[in-house]
Amino acid sequence: MSFETPDDLYYLESHEWIDPSTGKVGITEFAQDELGDVVFVELPEESEELSQEDEFGVIESIKAVSDLYSPASGTVTAVNETLFDQPELVNDDPFGDGWMLELEFDEGDLDALLSAEEYRDQIE
Description:
By secondary structure, the protein is α+β, with helices and mostly antiparallel strands. The chain is built from 4 helices and 9 strands. The strands form 2 sheets. It has a 6-stranded antiparallel β-sheet with strand order 1-2-3-9-8-5.
């Protein structure tokens, strides 16, 4: 099975992504597929400070509970509160409506992340 892996995003080995143009963060299509039906998402507060690879929340599915990790250091500027009532958006649209938070982040941190091609190699 081939998973969507947008070329304009950067990825952590733990399956989180960050959009360098907006600072939006979420989990990949591969990750949501592995988890199964998402039933709960715990996210940080706005204005919380995160360091790269810090745990920022928890995602729970019918199969597993997983920690979520920040792809970059920075300040949380927005949280997708829609996920509190509709966590299934992570399954339906992991790169769109299923985004989790927005970061004002240190662009130097992108150097430590995987490109789309490197991430595809990891999950194949």
